[in-house]
Design brief:
Shape: globular
Strand content: under 5%
Radius of gyration: 14 Å
Number of strands: 0
CATH superfamily: E3 ubiquitin-protein ligase SopA
Structural class: little secondary structure
Helix content: under 10%
Number of helices: 2
CATH architecture: 3 Solenoid
Largest sheet: none
Order of helices and strands: HH
CATH class: Mainly Beta
Length: 151
C-alpha cells in the first residue's frame, strides 16, 4: 500500500506483519495490539494514533510522523527510527532497547518515557538532563482490558 488514506481506522490487533505501508495516512487510527513486525512504515503519518502494545520489531519507521501518538508498551527492538518525529508522544513502558538510529534529541521531544526500557547510554543521558521524562505522568491510560499493565 502506498499513500493510502486510513485515517481514524480501527485496526486493533491487526496482523500486518511485513506489510508495505509506506507514506500511508493512519492519523488517529486505533491500532492497539497490532503486529507491525518487519513492516515498512517509511514516511507514514501516525499522528495521534493509538499504538499501545504494538509490536514494531524490525520495522522501518524512517521519517514517520508520530506526534501525539500513544506508544505505551510498544516494542521497538531493531526498528529503524531514523528521522522519526516523536514530539509529544506517550512512550511509557515502551521497549526501545536495540532501536536503531534513535537519538537523545528525538527522545527529548516526547511527552513521557516513564518505565520505558532504553539502552543504557541514552537512559543515563536522559536521567541527567531530562529527568522529568522518567517521572510518573499525572494521567493514566491503561484500560482494564489491556493485555499487559504498565507498572
Amino acid at each position: 500500500m502506498f499513500r493510502a488514506f486510513l485515517a481514524r481506522s480501527i485496526l486493533r490487533n491487526a496482523d500486518l506483519e511485513g506489510a508495505r505501508l509506506r507514506k500511508v495516512n493512519l492519523q488517529d487510527a486505533d491500532m492497539r495490539g497490532a503486529n507491525l513486525q518487519n513492516t515498512d512504515l517509511r514516511g507514514a503519518n501516525l499522528k495521534g494514533a493509538d499504538l499501545r502494545e504494538v509490536e514494531l520489531m524490525n520495522a522501518d519507521l524512517t521519517g514517520a510522523q508520530l506526534q501525539n501518538a500513544n506508544l505505551g508498551m510498544a516494542i521497538f527492538q531493531n526498528a529503524d527510527l531514523s528521522e522519526v518525529n516523536l514530539q509529544n508522544a506517550d512512550m511509557r513502558c515502551a521497549n526501545l532497547i536495540g532501536a536503531e538510529n534513535l537519538s537523545f534529541e528525538t527522545l527529548a521531544k516526547v511527552k513521557t518515557l516513564y518505565n520505558a526500557q532504553l539502552d543504557a547510554i541514552i537512559k543515563e543521558q536522559i536521567a541527567r538532563e531530562l529527568t522529568h521524562l522518567l517521572e510518573e505522568p499525572e494521567t493514566l491510560w491503561v484500560e482494564s482490558n489491556a493485555r499487559k499493565k504498565c507498572p
